[in-house]
Amino acid sequence: MTKLNIKLILYIIGMLLVFNGFSMFIASIVSLIVDDGAVIQLIISGLIPISIGIILMLTNKNNSRQINKRDGYIIVTLGWLTMVISGMLPYYFTNSILGSANLFFETMSGYTTTGSTILDDVERLPMSIIFWRSMTHWLGGMGIIVLAIALLPLLGIGGMQLFSAEAPGVSGDKIHPRISDTAKRLWMIYVGLTVVETILLNIAGMSFFDALNNSMSNIASGGFSTKNESIAHWNNIPVIQYIIIFFMFLAGTNFILIYFGLIGKIKKIYKNTEFNWYVSLLTIFVLIATVVLYTSVDLSETPVDHPEVYGKFESSFRHALFQVVAIVTTTGFVTGDFVSWGTFLTMFFFGIMFLGGSSGSTSGGVKVLRHLILIKNGLLEFKRSLHPNAIIPLRHNNTVVEKPIVIHVLAFFILYLILFIIGAGVLSIMGLDFVSAIGSAASSIGNVGPALGEFGPTNSFNSLPDLGKYWCAFLMLVGRLELFTVLILFTPFFWRDH
């Protein structure tokens, strides 16, 4: 194994710091426009990472321009941590969030698009800080590293190793054979969807500021909203919620399929097995939740909603559709307290936290494709038991899935469950009750947002012990980078030079 390219690692970390710093300058422009008194603090916040980043880039500019796999894993993990730590500065200098554990938790939740928050009153924050909070989602959603690999070729640095570390999925589809061109097209779609949703929400009745912020959170499958009640604040305007549902659905869809749809290759969409299952599962889950809500839950107690105006069935269907899509895509917006909708729906929503959206989307979780491979492989094991000498390959989209990929998916799933159990166990040691512990662990590793028990949809994570906040932040990072990227750094053989 080749030695680590320390100079190149530091150079790229510096580049990410500069990028993050200039993003803070955008927030300072928002502060100037709305006159919320945070301009100077945001400029200082931006100058610090820019200065450090420029120093790192200048002192490490003479480096080998080749990234190996080991470099890629380190760059992605350290890059994410660097963005989170520097991203804490706007909260710190404006005194919006106090305490290092709170700062780290909120910022990690932002960049990993988890959407869990320690803030009990979001609306008290300066508008520019609310904007910065949404921007951490937006930057983390498609992945800062994907943006970086779109720029690295300009510097003579190849980015395939970074891409595989940032998005170690099982899908081999690409928009363009050059990885940097793929990243650019993905970002164009990402920006385009954000703009379109902002316009539609604004037309539907949201203020432009609310529309922009909620769109940035939504397309990133995040969950930070501008209101304390999240999207429940607009329960009296159903069209707003239907618009958000539609874009949550798109955010949970493979972005490469969205690209194919935009250029007219519709067959590639409806012939995609994962997409068909994604739509089918959402449909089944929505029907189940709608029936239970309609027959067993009084939605007139839901804040701001008026089922007597829109009809009980419409309200039941809308809340079921919204919450199912929000949790499956790990967006984390809420229109009501789903843990108060009865034991069955509480367990139901907890269960679908483990599903996740499509591979190649901005959602977290296990992903539909991995579940499909697991199920198909399990069913094939029955056939193999009856015909031990037969060669029975696993197929996906009419293509044979190679055995190493199946093993990788099995390993991922086992590791995911082990980490969930350990995560919940550690939280229980810190004093959390059973429901709160398993809910917080599942929500954090799946980047879902709302949890159960003490940290349900209408509560913040403010009461979580400081150690618990750091632990949940770690689970968020591991989950966002799909386990192996982070956990491989804890293995001794990773650090050995061969």
Task: Give a brief description.
The chain is built from 22 helices and 2 strands. By secondary structure, the protein is mainly α. A hairpin with a 2-residue loop joins β1 and β2.
Fold and architecture overview:
This protein is mostly helical. 63% of the residues lie in helices and 1% in strands. It contains 22 helices and 2 strands. The chain has a two-stranded antiparallel ribbon. Strand 1 and strand 2 form a beta hairpin. Helix 19 runs antiparallel to helix 20. The model has no long low-confidence stretch (mean pLDDT 88).
Q: Give me the side-by-side strand order of the main sheet.
A: 1-2
What's the main sheet like? 2 strands, antiparallel
Q: What percentage of the residues does DSSP assign to strands (E)?
A: under 5%
The pLDDT mean sits at 88
Distance between the termini: 4 Å
Bulk shape: globular
Residues in helices, as a percent range: 55-70%
Order of helices and strands: HHHHHHHHHHHHHHHHHHEEHHHH
Number of β-strand runs? 2
Low-confidence stretches: none
Count of helical regions: 22
Assign the structural class, choosing from mainly alpha, mainly beta, alpha/beta, alpha+beta, or little secondary structure.
mainly alpha
Instruction: Please tell me how large the radius of gyration is.
Output: 22 Å
